[in-house]
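step: validate -> pass
step: tokenize input -> pass
step: predict -> running
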Amino acid sequence: MKTKKSLPKVENNNPVYFRLGYYESVDAKKDLLSSEMSFLNIIKIARKYNSLRAEEFEIRSKIYQTIRELNAALKKTKNYFPFFKIPERTAVGEIKKISPPAIKKDFDEKLENELMSIQDKLKAIEGA
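step: predict -> pass
step: emit ->
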């Protein structure tokens, strides 16, 4: 049976030192340097992001200023022109229906009477 090696105990808060081999120390240095490189790249990206945000803010403020100037110019030109009230279009369902005049009713009745008399004459001719 294998026995477990216990770690040396730290007494009186004295640190425990251990020795690294050559290849382990080279790997540790490579890892440390690659971590520093990654950290510096992150800082570079963050600074670029902040500069782009500042540039975007400047562009937006210029756009808003231009829009405000255009609105002021538009209001100024509107005041130069006379105001005409343009009637609004009514919806199709809202158009009022004009009631037909009473004369049309009499006229329709007269037409119906004439049609009936013509039909009677046609039946009389066919029957003869």
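step: describe -> The chain has a mean pLDDT of 80.
step: cleanup -> pass
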